[in-house]
Write a structure and sequence with these properties.
The protein has helices at 3-15, 18-25, 29-43, 59-83, 99-106, 110-116, 168-173, 222-230, 240-249, 282-295; strands spanning 48-50, 55-57, 91-97, 120-126, 140-145, 152-160, 162-166, 186-189, 198-202, 208-212, 214-218, 235-239, 253-254, 260-262, 268-275. By secondary structure, it is α/β, with parallel strands linked by helices. It has three domains: 3-83, Arc Repressor Mutant, subunit A (Orthogonal Bundle), CATH 1.10.10; 91-158 and 267-295, Periplasmic binding protein-like II (D-Maltodextrin-Binding Protein, domain 2, 3-Layer(aba) Sandwich), CATH 3.40.190; 162-262, 3-Layer(aba) Sandwich (D-Maltodextrin-Binding Protein, domain 2). Helix 1 (3-15) packs across helix 2 (18-25), helix 1 packs across helix 3 and helix 1 (3-15) crosses helix 4.
Length: 308
């Protein structure tokens, strides 16, 4: 038994199939299957139940998986400590964030980050899917939620504030509009629960109003919704990090500055998440510190990293 066999076993256990594990490791399923067969022969027990439709851990496989994960985590920590002996950030940092946040916030900062750390490489996975950090080899994730979820180390990057925005021309044609009037106006909708059907408004007295919204356009890209709002097509509910520059430049107008607005919960934030490890590599620490410096807010309710 060697380290590679343990890594392959862990990859199969996380992926739930030989094919998926093979794709993630850049090899063929038959090679993965042979490695698992060799490992099972060495241990003298079955680690997986195999059917034509599924692959699940046996009881022995569950026990072995817990031990294997701990060993791999210890090895990863030892390797990271050895590589970080000079404490100079180097190597590949694999980051994942939503498509909109990646386009609006991370990509514009990459030239500065790479210039600051010339031995650092970045693999940015821009997706609206919540990837399994361990299974996908993710070093750092940025997620939006009222509170962090999952078995990860987490700390707040910045609170998220939503705004209802429209072009100056649209706003001029609808002077005096109130939240309840949105039901009769063309809204630009994001295809997530709440965002596409009703928006919530909270006034200074903390009274909450639920407003049904409708629109002829629904787009699964927040940056596209922003651009459509700029062009005057309709009204959009978007995060502050996506529209604040446009509000400052006058390309967009905040229709309801006196209200808190959301499609889900009013108190939400962008969270930095990374796998719960005993050692945080210098490369990941450097990126976290950089993102905090450039994207964090002074009013952020930032908390030190903590495990759930």
């Amino acid at each position: 038994m060697d380290l590679i066999e343990l890594e392959i076993f862990a990859a199969v256990a996380r992926a739930g199939s030989f094919a998926s594990a093979a794709r993630r490791r850049g090899t063929d399923p038959s090679s993965i299957s042979r490695s698992i067969g060799t490992l099972e022969a060495e241990l003298g027990t079955r680690l997986f139940h195999r059917t034509t439709r599924s692959l699940t851990l046996t009881e022995a496989g569950e026990r072995f998986s817990r031990r294997a994960d701990a060993l791999l985590e210890d090895f990863a920590a030892a390797r990271a400590e050895a590589l970080d002996a000079t404490d100079v950030p180097s190597g590949i940092v694999r980051i994942t964030a939503s498509v909109g946040f990646s386009q609006a916030c991370i990509l514009p900062l990459l030239p500065e980050l790479l210039a600051r750390y010339d031995r650092l490489n970045v693999d940015l996975v821009a997706t609206d899917a919540n990837l399994d950090l361990a299974a996908e080899g993710i070093d750092l994730a940025i997620r939006f939620a009222p509170r962090p979820l999952g078995d990860y180390v987490s700390s707040m990057l910045r609170p998220t504030v939503y705004r209802v925005v429209a072009s100056p021309g649209f706003a001029a044609n609808h002077r005096g509009v109130q939240p309840g009037d949105l039901s009769a106006l063309p809204c630009l909708c994001f295809p997530l629960s709440g965002f596409r059907s009703r928006w919530l408004f909270r006034d200074r007295r903390k009274t909450i109003q639920e407003v049904p919204v409708h629109g002829r356009v629904q787009v699964s890209s927040s940056t596209a919704l922003r651009d459509l709002a700029v062009s005057g097509v309709g009204v959009a509910l978007l995060a502050d990090w996506l529209v604040d520059d446009h509000l400052k430049s006058g390309r967009l107008v905040d229709l309801f500055p006196g209200f808190d607005v959301t499609a889900t919960e009013f108190e939400t934030a962008a969270w930095l998440l990374y796998p719960s490890r005993k050692f945080l590599p210098a490369k990941t620490r450097a990126v976290i510190d950089f993102l905090r410096q450039r994207l964090g807010r002074p009013d952020s309710r930032a908390t030190p990293p903590s495990s759930p």
